């Protein structure tokens, strides 16, 4: 068991877990941040996607010990009032069906738009290709990415 300090959603948090604990478990079980979802545990589905630094990454395949020097942002830390352009676009276009994958989709799009404020459809598809939506709302997701880019301008 170790004591690790994480910088999560703008706050310093301490977790007492073994260093090889997946970051996702620390976020969900130790810190109560349930926005990043458990989907596959191997980084393949994108349900847990959060920002590590400015990059969209999968906390299910990252250890707590490897995360102490990074700023971590989960969906809960994106906007206190849901007013982030990506969140607004998601609501405006009624993207979510079941909603399980949506936090990971949103966080991937936040990273995409930070790096590329006006992505093409091909760039959107490439950025989201490893984020699985079992309900198949991909067309609404792509439309929401375009709308979020408009809102951010």
Automatic annotation (TrEMBL):
Alphabetically ordered keywords of this record: 2Fe-2S, Iron, Iron-sulfur, Metal-binding, Oxidoreductase
Any keyword Iron-sulfur? yes
Instruction: Please give the PROSITE patterns that the UniProt record associates with this protein.
Output: 2FE2S_FER_1, 2FE2S_FER_2
Keyword Repressor, does the record have it? no
PANTHER family assigned = BLR6218 PROTEIN (PTHR44379:SF2), OXIDOREDUCTASE WITH IRON-SULFUR SUBUNIT (PTHR44379)
Q: What is this protein called?
A: (2Fe-2S)-binding protein
Residues covered by the 2Fe-2S ferredoxin-type domain:
2-78
Extract the InterPro entries matched here: 2Fe-2S-bd (IPR002888), 2Fe-2S-bd_dom_sf (IPR036884), 2Fe-2S_ferredoxin-like_sf (IPR036010), 2Fe-2S_ferredoxin-type (IPR001041), 2Fe2S_fd_BS (IPR006058), Beta-grasp_dom_sf (IPR012675), Diverse_Oxidoreductases (IPR051452)
């Amino acid at each position: 068991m170790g004591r690790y300090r994480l910088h999560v959603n703008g706050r310093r948090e301490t977790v007492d877990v073994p260093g090889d604990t997946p970051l996702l478990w620390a976020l969900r079980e130790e810190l109560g941040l349930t926005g990043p979802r458990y989907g596959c545990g191997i980084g393949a589905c994108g349900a847990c996607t959060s920002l590590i630094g400015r990059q969209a990454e999968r906390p299910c395949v990252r250890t707590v010990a490897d995360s102490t020097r990074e700023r971590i942002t989960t969906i809960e830390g994106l906007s206190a009032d849901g007013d982030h352009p990506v969140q607004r676009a998601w609501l405006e276009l009624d993207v979510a069906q079941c909603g399980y994958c949506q936090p990971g989709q949103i966080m991937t799009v936040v990273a995409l738009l930070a790096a590329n404020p006006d992505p093409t459809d091909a760039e959107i598809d490439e950025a989201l290709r490893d984020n699985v939506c079992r309900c198949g709302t991909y067309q609404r997701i792509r439309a929401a990415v375009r709308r979020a880019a408009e809102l951010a301008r």
